[in-house]
Write a structure and sequence with these properties.
The complex is a heterodimer of chains A (290) and B (255).
Chain A (H helix, E strand, L loop, with lengths): L1 H29 L6 H17 L5 H24 L7 H23 L15 E4 L2 E4 H23 L1 H11 L1 H6 L4 H26 L8 H14 L4 H21 L8 H12 L14
Antiparallel strand pairs in A: 1-2
Helix pairs in contact in A: 1-5, 1-8, 1-9, 1-10, 2-3, 2-4, 2-8, 3-8, 5-6, 5-8, 6-8, 9-10, 9-11
Chain B lengths: L1 E10 L2 E11 L4 E6 L5 H9 L8 E6 L2 E2 L5 H7 L1 E4 L11 H8 L6 H14 L1 H5 L10 H13 L5 E5 L7 H16 L3 E6 L2 H7 L2 E6 L2 E6 L1 H6 L1 H7 L22
Parallel strand pairs in B: 3-8, 3-9, 6-7, 7-8
Antiparallel strand pairs in B: 1-2, 1-4, 4-5, 9-10
Helix pairs in contact in B: 3-6
Classes of the chains: A mainly alpha (290), B alpha/beta (255).
């Protein structure tokens, strides 16, 4: 029972991790919390759904086209809304993302209606794998694998590519980055594009695990926010670990204590974490010496 | 090499630079001296294109090309590099990554390698700290890193903003020594300093800036003879007045 709960919690946690990573990537570069993250992912997932359902595009092509759409959505949101803000404060920008969230949600409700649909994922959620005596549905297994691979790619990107390092540099010191000839505005759009794409992956996985409807991301978004707080808002590995932990904690609580209060645990975790260690589990932050 | 003509720079409604003209010849070390708030840093930032929509008036020419109104990114590409005041390294990137960010706009792998080795030969301490976060370096090491990073763009003109800020006298000497060496290797240098004594020692031409205007410009040996420069920038007191006490504020000739 214990092992079983951990494994299925891990699959949900992997989705939280991805969505949280998408948020943290933006938070790190611009200090903005993107509340539209969930809805951007939801719209992207609907695009994948529409492509497959109405236009009969094969799954892999639908995924690639969805990625392109997500990249465009993220970059254009930054370009069209955020960059136009005049002398923006962080709070103002956050409010803009909230507004965008509502626009997207309204749009999805109008275009696709409130019906619950299911995303046609090529991996079954009924068939199971048997791993070391634990039963695991195929979709759970592949969710974990896909998330891990994507996280590893992100790690390599930020560590070893020139653009990845430039993104970190821009986040740490914009003035110096400009002096080095880094186009900081371009970097910002790029950040939104990447984040939106990571979010789209999370959205598709969440839809595959559950259902697809315009409000499907409300809960996961708050949970992933909790994971980010748990792991440390500024640390990518911390966020990934935080997501996995939250998924497991939640599942264990649901299994052993109370199923009705399962969803509340995430918020208890936020409160507890902010009281005990506000910087999060793994965030090591360099404090500027005077 | 660099020709600045009558630039005026505004911060909102405040005019920080009130019509400054200066010229830097190729191969020179030129220095801009002045007190706090005189506008030294603003001049460099204006040249570098870091202030949006500035300069308000006037022109800046580099190697015969107008550069006023261009983005910092383009100006870096043309061959001007800027070491910001207060070092401004990337604190959570390693020393190695910091240096490589200096070469962000460049594509020539061989040239980058050469410049990397050159920087290391100037500042051997940086190779010892290669994998350390730049934020954990001491002030002097950070300054060396900032200069090294700027050199990685392979600049024709290197602008340094108060490299001596907050450093011990020995380190100041070392930094200025290296500045001279960099200049001897063929990089023109425009130096902004409060440490007038040091700056006049290594420069070949100097401008004195006050309240956004240039009030004196000459070679260092002539400026060093100037009564006002002596008193206000070098701290050499002139003789006591007839009444037997030093006037608290002497009237400057150039006002």
């Amino acid at each position: 029972m214990l092992g079983q709960l951990i494994v299925s919690g891990l699959a949900v946690g992997a989705c939280y991790s991805l969505l949280a990573l998408a948020m943290v990537i933006i938070y790190k570069t611009s200090d903005v919390l993107n509340f539209a993250q969930g809805e951007m992912a939801m719209i992207s997932t609907y695009v994948a759904f529409t492509l497959m359902e109405s236009h009969h595009v094969p799954f892999q092509w639908a995924v690639i086209l969805t990625f392109l759409f997500a990249i465009l959505l993220g970059a254009s949101f930054e370009f069209v809304f955020l960059r136009q803000a005049k002398e923006p404060t962080v709070l103002g920008l956050i409010i803009i993302t909230l507004g965008f969230e509502m626009i997207l949600m309204g749009f999805a409700g109008w275009k696709w209606g409130p019906d619950q649909r299911s995303l046609d994922f090529p991996v079954s959620n009924i068939e199971t794998y048997n791993l070391f005596g634990l039963v695991m549905s195929k979709i759970n297994f592949w969710t974990i694998v896909i998330s891990l691979v994507l996280m590893f790619i992100l790690f390599l990107f930020f560590r070893y590519t020139k653009v990845g390092v430039a993104m970190r540099a821009t986040q740490q010191n914009q003035l110096a980055a400009r002096v080095m000839g880094i186009r900081t505005k371009w970097i910002l759009s790029f950040t939104w594009a990447i984040s939106s794409m990571v979010g789209a992956v999370a959205g598709m996985l969440i839809a595959a695990l559950g259902v697809l409807d315009p409000t499907m991301m409300m809960d996961p978004l708050l949970k992933s926010f909790a994971s980010a707080v748990l792991g440390g808002m500024t640390s990518l590995p911390g966020t990934a670990v935080g997501g996995a932990m939250l998924g497991i904690i939640e599942n264990l609580f649901g299994g052993y204590v109370s199923l009705a209060f399962k969803s509340v645990v995430a918020f208890a975790v936020i409160v507890l974490m902010l009281c005990i260690k506000p910087s999060g589990l793994l965030a090591k932050h360099y404090v500027k010496k005077v | 090499m660099l020709k600045v003509k009558n630039i005026e720079t505004l911060y909102g409604l405040i005019m920080a630079i009130r019509g400054v003209s200066l010229e830097v010849q190729e191969g020179q070390i030129a220095a801009i001296l002045g007190a706090n708030g005189a506008g030294k840093t603003t001049i460099l930032k204006t040249i570098m294109g870091l202030l949006e929509d500035q300069p308000d008036k006037g022109t800046i020419e580099f190697l015969g090309k107008r550069i006023d109104g261009k983005d910092a990114e383009e100006i870096v590409h043309l061959g001007i590099s800027y070491v910001p005041e207060g070092r401004e390294v990337f604190p959570e990137l390693s020393v190695d990554e910091n240096l490589r960010m200096g070469a962000y706009t460049r594509r020539d792998k061989k040239g980058i390698k050469e410049d990397y080795d050159r920087v290391i030969s100037h500042f051997p301490v940086l190779s010892e700290r290669k994998n350390q976060w730049a934020g954990t370096l001491s002030g002097g090491e950070q300054q060396m890193l900032a200069i090294g990073r700027a050199l990685m763009t392979r600049p024709k003109l290197l602008m340094m903003d108060e490299p001596s800020l907050g450093l011990s006298p020995i380190l100041v000497k070392e930094i200025f020594g290296i500045t001279k060496m960099i200049n001897a290797e063929g990089t023109t240098i425009l130096l902004v300093e409060q440490n007038a004594k040091m700056a006049l020692k290594i420069s070949s031409y100097a401008f004195v800036l006050e309240n956004g205007r240039i009030v004196a410009a000459n070679t260092p040996d002539i400026l060093l003879q100037d009564e006002d420069v002596k008193e206000f920038y070098l701290g050499i007191r002139s003789e006591e007045s007839v009444k037997g006490y030093q006037r608290w504020k002497k009237k400057k000739r150039w006002r």
